[in-house]
Structures are given as structure tokens and as C-alpha cells.
Amino acid sequence: MAVLFAFMSLMLILSLSLVLDKSLSTNTLILVGVVFSMFVSSIINIVIALFSKKLHSITFWTMGSLAGSSYADAAMLAVALLLSGLVLFPLAEELNAFAVGEQNAQHVGVSVKRVKLIIMISVCVLVGVCVAVGGTIG
Q: Which domain holds residue 11?
């Protein structure tokens, strides 16, 4: 479920970023992501404030913990890491080109939007699985 919501959040952030800036610049993505994060955090805090007695476990979930995790959870994390690695490893050269900037990567033939999208989806899956296992931190 956390992976689904992470993916939906990514789609919303990408959609808003595309409306504001067709080039999907990193600055726009970061700013839209921060605004979205603050918005979702405020909604969670309102829900916790209104129903604090009933939602006591949400407070601990927002702190994050691996105390209740099992080997099955570790296996799920390992599978997600392996799958993301299999997706990202073939992009090693493109990612190296990103190290010197997006414009330089584009000049050497990297499809910047495609690689960015693949990276964001892979990270979205990894973060979703991590949050499902350990909760959020912060």
C-alpha cells in the first residue's frame, strides 16, 4: 500500500512540476516535492490532533522503527533493492553523465527526461517499501 501511495505522490508531483515547468528542472521538482511533503505532513498532524486517542499508533509510525520487523520484511527490502538495482545498473553510463550536470549529459546524448523518470520511479518503489517496513522518519 505504501508503494502505491508513493507512486501516486510521485505522479502528482510530476504533474504539478510539468504544469509549472515543461522542462522538469530539478529545482522545480524539489520545490514542488517540498510543498507537497509539507501539505501531507500538515494533514497527518491535523488527523493526529483530532483523533489522538484512537490514532496513538500513528504517532509511533511517524517516528519510524524497525523493532517489529521480521526476516520476511528484510527479504522484501532485499527484493526491492535487487529489482531497483537491475533497473538502474544498465543506466550506469547515463548516471555518470549526470554527475557533470543535466545539460552536459544531454549534450553527450543522454535522454535526460527518460533517465530522470526511470530514477524517480525506482526510488519511489524503494522508498515505498522502506516506509512500509519501518514507517516514516521525521
A: 2-134
DSSP state at residue 22: T
CB 125 within 8 A of CB 3: yes
Kindly report, residue by residue over 39-58, the tens digit of the pLDDT: 998 998 888 888 877 777 77
> Which cell is 133 given?
517496513
Give the CATH number for residue 23. Answer: 1.10.3470.10
Number of domains in the chain: 1
Q: Residue 68: pLDDT band by 50, 70, 90 thresholds?
A: confident
- Cell numbers of 40, please? 501531507
DSSP 49-88: HHTTTTTHHHHHHHH---TT--HHHHHHHHHHHHHHHHHH
Contact (Cβ atoms closer than 8 angstroms) between residue 65 and residue 135: yes
DSSP letter at 90 equals G
